[in-house]
Amino acid sequence: MSNINEIVERWVQVWHEADAVARRKTISELWADDATEVTTEKEFHGQDALFNRVTSAYEEFVGTGQYVFVSAGDVAAHHDMVVFTCQMLAAGGDEVRWRARIVLLLNEAGQIQREDQVELQTLSV
Fold first, then answer.
1. Which residues of 81-100 are buried (b: 16+ CB within 10 A; e: fewer)?
2. Number of domains in the chain
3. I need a labelling partner for 66 at 20 to 30 A (CA). Which of 38, 80, 86, 89 fits?
């Protein structure tokens, strides 16, 4: 995946994916087998851990119909690094409930090797 905007769009979309099979397929395409995601509170290693993480977030936030995740439209890239802001909004509105800077390090195949989430606004529900 050489198109940076496509990577970001697919990254955002996977958090909205209701179908577990499609979610796992997207995760296997976006993230490397041995990828790591680092958040403020935890680290997730490998595609199984990432699948569980995304599924949990979907069930807690998106699947309930309460929230949506969106890119703030500030995608920037330099060599193998992609940076953008992700926001969680109340569904049907524009009130930001959570916001983080997402930093993706891509491998040679264009998959996410490492993801760091730097919280800019903690969850307010």
1. ebbbbbbbbeeeeeebbbbb
2. 1
3. 38
pLDDT digits (tens, 9 = 90+) for 78-96: 999 999 999 999 998 888 9
Report the C-alpha gap between 119 and 1 in whole angstroms: 26
Give the amino acid at 92: G
pLDDT, tens digit (0-9, with 9 covering 90-100), for 29-44: 999 999 999 998 999 9
pLDDT category of residue 123 using cuts at 50, 70 and 90: confident
Per-residue DSSP letter, 63: T
User: Residues near 90 by Cβ (< 8 Å), separated by ≥ 6?
Assistant: 66, 67, 97
- CA-closest candidate to residue 18, choices 58, 64, 46: 58
* Residue given tokens 């949506």 in the structure block: 68
Report the alpha-carbon distance of residue 83 to residue 91 in Å, rounded. Answer: 24
CATH number at 17 reads 3.10.450.50
Residue 124, both tokens: 């307010």
Question: What's this model's pTM, rounded to 2 decimal places?
Answer: 0.92
